[in-house]
Amino acid sequence: xxxxxxxxxxxYEDYCTIVFAETRGQARQIAQSTDACEDSExxxxxxxxxxxxxxxxxxxxxxxxxxxxxxxxxxxxxxMRCSYxxxxxxxxxxxxxxxxxxxxxxxxxKE
Length: 111
Fold this sequence. Notes:
Helices cover about 25% and strands about 15% of the residues. By secondary structure, the protein is of the alpha+beta class. It has one domain. A hairpin with an 8-residue loop joins strand 1 and strand 2.
């Protein structure tokens, strides 16, 4: 299975998820059942290949932010991070902080 980062750029510029599919079209279709694209039109969904995440496929169509192994991979290889809407994301306890831009900004006092 191939990994794709999917998002609806018409509505959510920074909100995305990682799905697994054989083709870009299948990734866009799967995306429609995710939180990131649940109300999106098929034609508004952008799916970009993320080959660095192919090896993280474990039989599920979507990576889960709440699964720490998935989170580390998404932060490390796709540059994802917690939403700015999260008041206290728990950065100190997060296993992905080593690769997280948001954690770096917090440490530097820029957030």
